[in-house]
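Question (not urgent): is this output format expected?
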Amino acid sequence: MITIVIADDHLIVRQGLRALLDAETDFMVVGEAGNGQEALEILEKLQPDILVADLTMPILSGIEITQKSKQFSPNTRVIILSMHSNEPYVLEALRNGAWGYVLKTSSATELTLAIHTVAEGQRFLSTSLSKMVIDSYISKSREASIDPYDTLTRREREVLCLAAEGLNNAEIATHLSISLTTVMTHRNNLMRKLDLHNQTDIVYYALHRGIINNLHIHNN
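Got this back:
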């Protein structure tokens, strides 16, 4: 029996994946997570064989979960589920320890095949990605990476924009109708991901990227 944890911030997606995987006689979905931190906590508790994780997750991205999963559940093999088919994303996932990379446009059959393949100790890429380049992805892993900005969540981008415009944490909390603690968490996360260290770095980065006046804020 292959034990599986599903990590995706959309409940309806998790429910759909669970229904799909539960239909397989040799699969057992033992847990679900709605954000990256929760995923790590569940991994540590349940030690599943497979984690199917969305690439874009709140708090920690799928790639960050993959990195940290080795500490929390070293025998769990991670399969990234993503809508991104371009090489840098696949490379980054493999470089950080993912065993599989499945596109969200894939069939249900392909996902189940990915889980079986990875459970047997082999890497898996969606069939629309060239299997001939797996070795190339790994060999080039020290030479390429995705843009760190692409790893930010929507809320982290909103906080970045407002902070760059000069709002303090309390003002950002009011503007976005979220708590001060949540703002501080988002701010710390984005600064860590972008390797920024102070307010000046934030402003310079936002100006350099040309995003201060281009990001449209949408409250939940």
